[in-house]
Amino acid sequence: MKNLYESSDKFDKNAIESLGISELVLQENAARAVAQIIRQNLKPHSKILALCGKGNNASDAIAALRMLSGEYRCGLVLLEDNINQNAKIQLNIAKNVGVEILNLDLISDFNEFDCLVDGIFGSGFRGEMIPKIANIINLANAANCLKIAVDIPSGISQNAQVSKQVFKADFTICMGVLKLGLYSDKAKDFTGEISLANLGIDESKFSYGDCDYLLLLEDLELPSREVQNVNKGDFGHAFIACGDMGGAAKIAARAALKMGAGRVSIVNLTQNSINIDPQIMLKSSFDNADVVGFGMGLGGASLDFDKLKGLRCVVDADAFYKPWIRDFAMSKMVVLTPHPKEFSSLLMMCDMGEFDIDEIQNNRFELARKFSLKFPSTLVLKGANPIIAKDGRLYIASSGSSKLAVGGSGDALVGIIVAYLANGFTPLKAAINGVLAHQKSAQIYKGNSYSFTPNDIIEGLKWL
């Protein structure tokens, strides 16, 4: 895991005032990280243009050009007249070593440059940008060249709000700490490869206090079968509720079995016949269940939720539209796995307000955090970058891909998490590892992304 913070402002201030590191030293190290990425990706004498605002990220961009000047052809455009003092200092030095100050009106096409460096807003962006800057970003995004964002692509705020225009970077270089806003769903298509710049002091000395976490695939912990004197009962009996759409239950059941649940049974809540794999059992009740997964494909089927209270459960899909969902949200033994529309209903059912899908997506971190502070269940808010929320802390899993955007993918996720619970993992650890296993299964798939199916998720579990 890596630490995530909304902002590094207080850490910068602490480094300067308490640790005695000058602001110019911090900026030198920030600029060096930008220059290093350019050297790694561009041949000498390539043409570089920095788009500079008035803040410290502009200072970082200007200083990087100064380091590269001579080795590369470097120019910059000032988009603001009232640049701060640090930017003025860096600008004067850059001029002395041959960095050109260019007139934006005389640049007919950004395609004449091999690289564009975004030093416009950084983490200081708020609201919507003025038309002039929006137009510049649109032109920059249309250019066929390397694009690097300093700290945060312009158009993304530190609290994960995303503007209509966002600089689309190939690389984003975070200064000092990784920023939470880079890992929102709406930011995923604009950040490119994210790296962390060391500002001259180890991160453990630079940052402090509470944080959220970025989950890495290497954090994945698999169910253990190291002890040999065991039987199937040692790995739990997982039950899956089958509603009107029986395919969802079958996908979840197969995923649970493949992920290591000792036994898997389906309880058919309808009068419909259901054909199941021979290794999965058919039950008439939830008696003797260690873990239950339900909600996916439930439809109008009747579920006696009172019989599930007190059990470890993974709750999905149609269950979030039922008034009794609040009882499960109140259980620390439950994992909830809504997508944004379902989360909207869950919030309403739990008296947390009415939010449409856009509001959910624009405020994913805030709403997930608030929900997890009010309810003791573990929340998995699905999306491009799923959020696992527990007790006000967020765990962001950014390794997913568009392959997973297919019907039945969420059903497989339910089964995977169910299997982790059956193997004795806590709800939080089951949710974290379930999401990571789900994402890694997609990553190791070798076919075309459009051909990926839930069966491929399940098949991939054996190679994790």
Describe this structure in words.
The protein is built from 14 helices and 19 strands. The mean pLDDT is 94. Strand 5, helix 5 and strand 6 form a beta-alpha-beta unit. It is elongated and about 80 Å long. Helix 7 crosses helix 12, helix 7 packs parallel to helix 14 and helix 13 packs across helix 14. The protein has 2 domains: 208 residues, 3-Layer(aba) Sandwich (Rossmann fold); 246 residues, Ribokinase (UDP-N-acetylmuramoyl-L-alanine:D-glutamate ligase, 3-Layer(aba) Sandwich). The strands form 2 sheets. It has a 12-stranded mixed sheet with strand order 8-1-10-19-18-17-16-15-14-11-12-13, sandwiched between helices. Strands 4-3-2-5-6-7-9 form a 7-stranded parallel sheet, covered by helices on one side. It is α/β, with parallel strands linked by helices.
Task: Kindly list the characteristics that best describe this protein.
7-stranded parallel sheet, potassium, alpha/beta, elongated, Rossmann fold, 2 domains, 19 strands, 14 helices, lyase, UDP-N-acetylmuramoyl-L-alanine:D-glutamate ligase, 464 residues, 12-stranded mixed sheet
